[in-house]
Amino acid sequence: MTDAVTLSGLHRAFGRVTALDGLTWAAPAGRITAVLGPNGAGKTTAIECAVGLGRPDAGTVRVLGSDPWLAGADHRARVGVMLQSGGLPNGTKPLRLLHHLSRLYADPVDVDAVAQRLGVTDFASTTVRRLSGGQKQRLALAAALLGRPEVLFLDEPAAGLDPHGRLDVWDLVAEQRDAGTTVIVTTHSFEEAARLADHLVIMNAGRTAAEGTPDSVTAGRPLEDVYFSLTRKGAA
Amino acid sequence: MTTDATTTPARAAAPRRRVLAQAGFELGSLLRNGEQLLVSLVLPSLALVGLSLTASPSLGPGRRVDVAAAGVIALCVISAAFTSQAISTGFDRRYAVLRYLGVTPLGRGGLVAGKVLATLAVEALQIAVIAVLGLVLGWHPAAAGIAYAVLFVVAGTWAFVALALLLAGTLRAEAVLAIANLVWVLLLGAGGVIVPRTELPDGVGQAVGFLPSAGLADGLRSALVDGELNLLALLVVLGWGVVSTALAARLFRFDD
Q1: Contact status of B11 with chain A (Cβ, < 8 Å)
Q2: What is the ipTM of this complex?
Q3: Considering the domain boundaries, does residue B3 fall inside one?
Q4: Per-residue pLDDT tens for B135-167?
Q5: What's the gap in Å between the CA of B113 and the closest CA on chain A?
Q6: Helices B85-94 and B173-190, interaxial angle, to 10°?
Q7: B8 to chain A: nearest residue by CA?
Q8: Which range of residues forms the domain containing residue A62?
Q9: pLDDT per residue as tens digits for the range A71-96
């Protein structure tokens, strides 16, 4: 199986804090890769490097064969991103924003259909600033899908959603995978990882603690047990 | 690899289309925002009407409405290119909007181009309103200087957008809000914008001549009152443009 995303030997430090310490993992094409790890494990830093927002001090990043730090607009159009920090303009209404963002792509999806699918139409008359956390998540996910991405980076996509909302997001993520999209999901949820992952990465202290199919990583043990044995203080 | 990059058709919209979309989006957001419209249109209009109908403060030689209109156009440029841009960019940076747009096909370069274009569009609107109001009040701009005035508006926009990005890209959003407003008030009062620096106390007037606000307003007055190109003022504005752009390019941080 080919890899759509590869991170090899990434190092990144912010002052004296080492965020990535030789991080290496890959996301197979057309599969869902779930990246688990405690706060401070470097998940967000790794995603930032993969979407071109950050540049590692050492190591190489390849997404669809390109270095995302140097890649141009056509590369960015092939990659859908949902950032944990949101980043959606605050002063506008959801549908106006989605229609605007769709104009940045040569062949965007049907904005109204995506909005309908993710329930954005239910809060279409509310300014982005006033949306609840869950509504913002839905809007950010809709925005990530606008350009028919080949690779989709979702930083904690179901965080803050109620159970129905989570299920909707999981269905949608699985659907994207079934349509051939490579999906990388960072999460704190074992349930999410167990439900979604074709490929599993457990990160700890800026390194990969385990990587492989869910079965090969857990070897019959509960995912939680494996996770805690790999990521408890001192495990690194 | 699922897709061969060399055979994939362009996935992003054409660069021009992306920048125009962003400029249109920013312009639409501005026109929907009451406070922004107040600063952009209502305050300059009030300033022009106020100055034309009163005899103080002294605006120096020239017909009062002519001198006032040129100064008010400079004020429009400063409010649109500097105050409004600094505040919106500062908060966009705080709320990670700059990061987000950086990962879309728009990118960072497209974002800056969109902002500049949106600013020029706002200025065109402001100047149209001020021109109509000015003509009603008896303004006679010097036809020979209109091209020079356009030059100063464009150069001034460059310098003040660069200053806005320098401020917005280096300080906290709250500090940007406070400083951008404070600078606007200070420049309005003593920056040689509406009241020509020749009417300020001696030493002050000379020093103020080196400010981008005075450079812009002096240039616009030379152009629209006397129909002349004020090269010294142009040098001041361009100098600020060069220095601020270099500093902004070096110091601007997209992350808060």
Answers
A1: yes
A2: 0.90
A3: no
A4: 999 999 999 999 999 999 999 999 999 999 999
A5: 14
A6: 170
A7: A74
A8: 3-231
A9: 999 999 999 999 877 789 888 999 99
